[in-house]
Structures are given as C-alpha cells and as structure tokens.
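pasting for the record
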Amino acid sequence: MPNGDEEDRVLIAGGGPVGLICALRLSQSGIPVTVFEQEKKILDDPRAATTHPATLEMLEELGIEREVENAGLVAVEFRFWDRPTGELIASFDHGLLADETRFPYVVQCEQFKTSKIVLDKLSAFPECRVLYSHKVTAVRQAKHQVAVTIECPDGIGPFTGRFLIGADGSRSIVRKAMDIEFEGFTYPERFLVLTTPSDFAADRQYVYRNYLADPTEWCNLFKVSGDGPPGLW
C-alpha cells in the first residue's frame, strides 16, 4: 500500500457528491487531494435527486451545471395534494424567484449521475486521486498534519495530509474523532424509496415534484430521467 505522505495534500473521507465536489473545487484551485470512499464504485440508486437553485449556482461556478441539468429534468413547480381525496391543495411556481437567482427552478437529477459527472471532471487533474474500496477507520491529529488509517484490499495503512475533510455520512468517523455531536433525533418510521416506469401524470395533474398529505399514509412523488425517456417515478 502506498503511503500518501504529502505535506500539502488535502484528504477527504467520503466519495459521495459532497466529497467529490470538494475535491473538484480544491483541484481547480491547484491543491492536491485524495478522496477515500469505502464503496467499490458510485452506487446507482435514485436517492437525493432534487438540486435546488442555490446548489445550481454553485455547480455553475464549478463548470458542471449545464451537464447536471442535461442529465436530469427541469422542474419549474411543485404541488401539494390531499392524498385521500386527490384534491390539489397548492401549487408553487419557482419562476417567482427569477429576480433572486439565475436558476428559478430545480433539477431532478439522481445523486449518482451528479457524482459521475464530477468524477469525470476530476480525471483531468493528475494530482487528484479518488480511491474506492478505501475506508477511513481512524483519525489522528498532529501539530501540522493529520493522519488517517485506511482499510483497503491491500491491507491497512496510514495516509497523511495537511487537512482532512469529513464527508463520510451520518456515521462519520471524522466527526466522532473530533467529538462533534450529531444533534437531533431519529424518526422511528422506516421510509421506502421505490421506482416505477408507470406514468402517474397520465391520468392526474401531477408535475415532476408532488407532496401527498395524509396523517398516516403520506408520500412524495417525484419524477427523474432514469436511463432515458419516458423516465421513472
């Protein structure tokens, strides 16, 4: 296992969209960076598909907003429905934000597609390394650098750098190493994410983003582009 002992390198724990976007910004600024991701590859699942105007502005600064938009669906409004009766409660038009943002809409683009777009951009930077099947298991802070212990197919070994960014999710090793509390509470309910090619808009006035209100049987109904037309709900 190589030891990434480089004085000015930034280490990033977690290769999801947050970690990869941090890596892209650092790489564009000429800073060497190594990303450690415990999964073998980017997971192709439909979660976290909604990208809001402020995030689109950030993606534009990174030079990838147009690609993300082309990979998804542009949603100019969202609607609230009464689930039992099917009655439309309210409709919200993002176009009213036109004086506040360059992007008065949201983009329905699955998280993994955004990550793949960023990963492709990172391939242009030789000083950026994205290491899959590399899990951060421990963190040690020294005076002028930080060291992480990595588990990977080659064994267990240390990497060191100037800074460490924690983007390793709700069970973050980095956060625990810094004694940062994960405040809040956990909902007792379990949530399911299902996808289907069935066209829910065929017989109802559903748009790309819908919230169905019900005291016990509420749900959200979104559309994404999937692998191409007609898309998935």
